[in-house]
Amino acid sequence: xxxxxxxxxxxxxxxxxxxxxxxxxxxxxxxxxxxxxxxxxxxxxxxxxxxxxxxxxxxxxxxxxxxxxxxxxxxxxxxxxxxxxxxxxxxxxxxxxxxxxxxxxxxxxxxxxxxxxxxxxxxxxxxxxxxxxxxxxxxxxxxxxxxxxxxxxxxxxxxxxxxxxxxxxxxxxxxxxxxxxxxxxxxxxxxxxxxxxxxxxxxxxxxxxxxxxxxxxxxxxxxxxxxxxx
Length: 230
Fold this sequence. Notes:
By secondary structure, this protein is of the alpha+beta class.
């Protein structure tokens, strides 16, 4: 079964590399996923900042309302590196997902995979089946396939055009100042640690706040950390 999964993924990988538009990728995923029993699918991306932003659906045939419900059952927030959740209507009516099956009786199983890339964007692939007898009977094989697919989509420049994170360009000194502020140090203490004047520290802090369009240093520290700058 793993050999068949590998062959299936190699075909999708080659098709994705050759695809020239988002619409083409959408069509080919619908075709190749449906061949293995997946009737519903979606690919979403969430930027690391602002923290209040939501995942945006880039591909897929899952309605927004269903997408919010299913992802809500899978995870409450993006993981630090990766996460996987899968659940099946046949498992038990006592599961937390029981309400989901009553709301969408056509769905018999769901698999949700989220990967966080080097760019700190959270890439989520969600697939659902309407079949009680699924082609890949081993859940571990399903999960492996979804991780491979999520990783491939996360690297696709055609899909991610326009979904770039606005990352700040900070000087070496600005990064040093932010790190110490993030550790709870005041400007006076940071100045002593770095061997510069307090006014110089405050000068760097003001420049950083301007770059983030922020009125306080807390937001600058939080955003810099989320974007992997400190």
